[in-house]
């Protein structure tokens, strides 16, 4: 069963077409029967995977969604696809980073007119840290774009990857005639039957002379596809297409099914855990509150790493220390959900809970394993939170706790002073915070300037921490776990304190 799982994410710069591609993959996979279009110019329907109010208003993805669908291959084997749709906007990079810890491969979407953009490169580097193999999809070839060779060489040079074109556009923009599959020699055309046969590539049958020459150069100039090099993160197969016009999407699904790795071992403090390990283990990479505002629900997303999970079995969260019975595990399609009676390694299941489970928790039968690699990052923006209605202090505390558990924000409670401080990586996260406070918790708040510029978690022996606190009380806070945090006015402030306190470590990350 494990061999039939494909758990993957889609990464891209904003506006490269990621959400449209997600819809078309779900459409071709049979998960939906009508694809909505990406919101554009205030028109059209919003994407099915963007359910949050602010996402509907702005036409952007600001939270990761999980969608599961199945497809039968040519040999009659059923492949289960777990697609994790991530935010494209850089202000939500933390959520994307945590999501990428839960996948075994990724599709990197590139705009044919723009090539590698900054956020694409950042997300690729995250994948490289975990050796996540990448399939590249050059999108929007039905519009005017850059030359295919320029795009391929940019991927190779900027990302230090071997590239292997698997398809080729027959013309681009106004001259677009279809997508040629380099292996079969078949072309998907804008009119007529899909996959209309135009003859083998090396015979140049019916191909424009310029395209035939390009293909000959491409096949001679780039390495052949090597599945081991791809799975090792050294080579990326490249597909050209148009998500909006549905060209190249079927080929992507087939590539994920045929090339992408099944569930891989996951890192722990004591070494990697293999999917074939008998004990049921998994980790929480995301918590989402209020997916169903009518029921004030709270769902923890667990990546199952090993063992066969059965509904009702007891697992022990590392953050709790005592077992909980998982009675109502959920499989997702965006907002739609169904009860999962069982799950296999690679599957993503949702566990309803009331604050028991947090991002970074390991769940296991014996409570002897701790998965690693889901850190908090030091915030780049700090703001004080002020209530418009002071009687709603309890509701605000509850909301901030919920949203910090999700990873939307970080909350710091100063040792001196009553105003709580929220920390985020990007400005848009603050807009999401205010929107969700009002929409989901009926709390109106404003954000005010903070005297601090950044934060560092501090560690050391008790005496060193006490001595530091005696002289820096005004700059100390606790995070939601009660761990001490140094609130710094500048990067220079951090360096100065590090020099003066060599027995303490000032960390920009905190392992969850």
Automatic annotation (TrEMBL):
All residue ranges annotated as the Tr-type G domain in the record: 3-264
Entry GO MF terms: GTP binding; GTPase activity; guanosine tetraphosphate binding; translation release factor activity, codon nonspecific; translation release factor activity, codon specific
Record family assignment: Belongs to the TRAFAC class translation factor GTPase superfamily. Classic translation factor GTPase family. PrfC subfamily.
Protein origin, superkingdom: Bacteria
PANTHER family: PEPTIDE CHAIN RELEASE FACTOR RF3
Name of protein: Peptide chain release factor 3
UniProt organism field: Novosphingobium pentaromativorans US6-1
GO biological process: regulation of translational termination
Functional description taken from the UniProt entry: Increases the formation of ribosomal termination complexes and stimulates activities of RF-1 and RF-2. It binds guanine nucleotides and has strong preference for UGA stop codons. It may interact directly with the ribosome. The stimulation of RF-1 and RF-2 is significantly reduced by GTP and GDP, but not by GMP.
């Amino acid at each position: 069963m494990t061999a039939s799982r494909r758990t993957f994410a889609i990464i891209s710069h904003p506006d490269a077409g990621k959400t449209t591609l997600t819809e078309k993959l779900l459409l071709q996979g049979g998960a939906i029967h009508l694809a909505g279009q990406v919101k554009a110019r205030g028109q059209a329907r919003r994407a099915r995977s963007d359910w949050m109010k602010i996402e509907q208003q702005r036409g952007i993805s600001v939270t990761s969604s999980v969608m599961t669908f199945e497809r039968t291959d040519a040999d009659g084997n059923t492949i289960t696809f777990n697609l994790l749709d991530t935010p494209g906007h850089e202000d939500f990079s933390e959520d994307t980073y945590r999501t990428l810890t839960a996948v075994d491969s990724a599709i990197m979407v590139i705009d044919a007119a723009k090539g590698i953009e900054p956020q694409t490169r950042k997300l690729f580097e995250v994948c490289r840290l975990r050796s996540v193999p990448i399939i590249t999809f050059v999108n929007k070839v039905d519009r005017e774009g850059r030359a295919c060779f320029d795009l391929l060489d940019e991927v190779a040079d900027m990302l230090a990857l071997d590239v292997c074109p698997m398809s080729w556009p027959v013309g681009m923009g106004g001259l677009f005639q279809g997508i040629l599959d380099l292996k079969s020699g078949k072309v998907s055309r804008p009119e007529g039957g899909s996959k209309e046969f135009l003859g083998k590539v090396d015979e140049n049958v019916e191909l424009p002379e310029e395209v035939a020459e390009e293909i000959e150069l491409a096949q001679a100039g780039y390495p052949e596809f090597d599945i081991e090099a791809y799975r090792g993160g050294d080579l990326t197969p490249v597909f050209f297409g148009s998500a909006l016009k549905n060209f190249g999407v079927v080929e992507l699904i087939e590539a994920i099914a045929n090339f992408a790795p099944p569930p891989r071992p996951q890192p722990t403090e004591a070494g990697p855990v293999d999917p074939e390990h008998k004990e049921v283990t998994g980790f929480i990479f995301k918590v989402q509150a209020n997916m169903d505002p009518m029921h004030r629900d709270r769902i923890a997303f667990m990546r199952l790493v090993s063992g066969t999970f059965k509904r009702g079995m007891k697992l022990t969260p590392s953050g709790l220390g005592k077992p909980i019975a998982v009675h109502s595990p959920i499989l997702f399609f965006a907002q739609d959900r169904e009860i999962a009676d069982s799950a296999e390694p690679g599957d993503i299941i949702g566990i309803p809970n009331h604050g028991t489970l947090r991002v970074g928790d390991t769940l296991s039968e014996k409570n002897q394993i701790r998965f690693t690699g889901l850190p908090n990052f030091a915030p780049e923006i700090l703001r004080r939170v002020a209530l418009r209605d002071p009687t709603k202090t309890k509701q605000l505390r509850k909301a901030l706790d919920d949203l910090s558990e999700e990873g939307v924000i970080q909350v710091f409670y100063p040792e001196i002073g009553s105003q709580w401080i929220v920390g985020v990586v990007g400005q848009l996260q603050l807009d999401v915070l205010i929107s969700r406070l009002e929409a989901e918790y009926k709390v109106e708040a404003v954000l005010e300037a903070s005297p601090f510029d950044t934060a560092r978690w501090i560690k050391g022996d008790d005496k060193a921490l006490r001595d530091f606190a005696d002289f820096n009380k005004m700059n100390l806070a606790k995070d939601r776990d009660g761990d001490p945090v140094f609130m710094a006015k500048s990067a220079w402030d951090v360096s100065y304190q590090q020099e003066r306190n060599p027995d303490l470590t000032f960390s920009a990350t905190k392992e969850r």
